[in-house]
Every structure is written in structure tokens, then in C-alpha cells.
Write a structure and sequence with these properties.
Elements lengths: L8 H7 L3 E7 L7 E6 L10 E3 L1 E4 L6 H13 L8 E13 L4 E12 L15 E7 L1 H6 L2 E2 L2 E2 L5 H14 L2
Parallel strand pairs: 1-6
Antiparallel strand pairs: 1-4, 2-3, 2-7, 5-6, 8-9
Length: 170
């Protein structure tokens, strides 16, 4: 899918240009969703809990390839395309007045179907403060978890994830 022309992420955020991103959900051996606490230096949602791996789709890159790359970069986890299931796509828009960031994204959401030993993960310290894990029902319904806000996603997003998980018996 082509999204126009290549532009820097900062430029897109300053001008509110819609851009593609990926969200990858990875679950630990206890079937809890692994979440990342975003660094306080992030332009969007600093010091918020978010799904396992997230990031922008690079110019000329497919969302699937971006999901694999972001999971490797952020979690140190080399994932297999065959075990990555698409959930769907959602539009999100948010304004961050502190840095005048207008974040308009189309989020491609994926589910990794292999359970992971969380201790084996090596998170990207430049973007992630730390990793944790929790039950999906708590993380998808609460606004705060372990003293930090949770990045909010629409109910349809979480319902689609729950539906896919039930079909996969995860």
C-alpha cells in the first residue's frame, strides 16, 4: 500500500498527516499481554502503557514487514510471519499540546500466536522504559495500571482482539 510520499515522522506529527503504524500483541507463558511503558521522551503518550510493540511503517514497507521489524527492534524478538495474525485496522487521532503534536494514525493490529518467555525479551531502552504483563480484560478496560496511564484504544479494537483470541484458544 502506498501512502503518498515519504515524510519524516516529526513532520507528520507537526502537520497532522495521517500515517500508518503497527501494533503487535505478544503474550507471555501465562497468557498475559506483554505491555511496554513508553519512555518519557516519546512525542506521543509518554509514560503510558501500550501494547507489546508499536511503531511507524517505513516508506515502501508493508505493515506486516513493519510488525516484524518493530517487534525485533523493541523487544529483541525475531518473530515468524506465519505466527503473526492480522486483527484489523483502526484510525486514531490525538493532540499533544506539550509538544504541539497532532498524531493521526491508521493502526494495523497484529497478534503473535506463540507464547513467549517474557524473561527472554530485551526491550529497546531508547523507546521503552520497561516491560510488564497483565490480563487483557484489565488492560483493555482500565485507564491507569501500576501508577501510569494506559494508551486508550476503541472498544472495537479490543473486541476484535478478544474475538480472535477466542478463535485461536489463546
Amino acid at each position: 500500500m502506498e501512502w503518498g510520499r515519504p515524510i519524516p515522522k516529526d513532520w507528520a506529527h507537526k502537520r497532522g498527516v495521517v500515517h500508518p503504524t503497527v501494533h503487535v500483541m505478544v503474550f507471555n507463558l501465562e497468557k498475559e499481554l506483554i505491555v511496554q511503558l513508553r519512555k518519557k521522551t516519546k512525542q506521543t503518550n509518554p509514560l503510558h502503557w501500550d501494547v507489546s510493540a508499536t511503531g511507524h511503517v517505513d516508506w515502501g514497507e508493508s505493515p506486516l514487514d513493519a510488525a516484524i521489524r518493530e517487534t525485533r527492534e523493541e523487544l529483541g524478538l525475531q518473530i515468524s510471519q506465519e505466527l503473526l495474525i492480522p486483527i484489523g485496522g483502526w484510525y486514531s487521532a490525538e493532540y499533544f499540546p506539550k509538544n504541539r503534536c497532532i498524531d493521526r494514525e491508521f493502526n494495523w493490529v497484529y497478534l503473535y500466536t506463540q507464547l513467549i518467555d517474557q524473561k527472554s525479551l530485551m526491550h529497546q531502552t531508547e523507546e521503552i522504559d520497561r516491560l510488564s504483563a497483565g490480563r487483557l480484560d484489565l488492560l483493555s478496560t482500565q485507564k491507569v495500571w501500576h501508577h501510569y496511564p494506559i494508551v486508550q484504544h476503541p472498544n472495537a479494537y479490543w473486541n476484535a482482539v478478544r474475538q480472535k483470541l477466542s478463535l485461536l484458544h489463546l
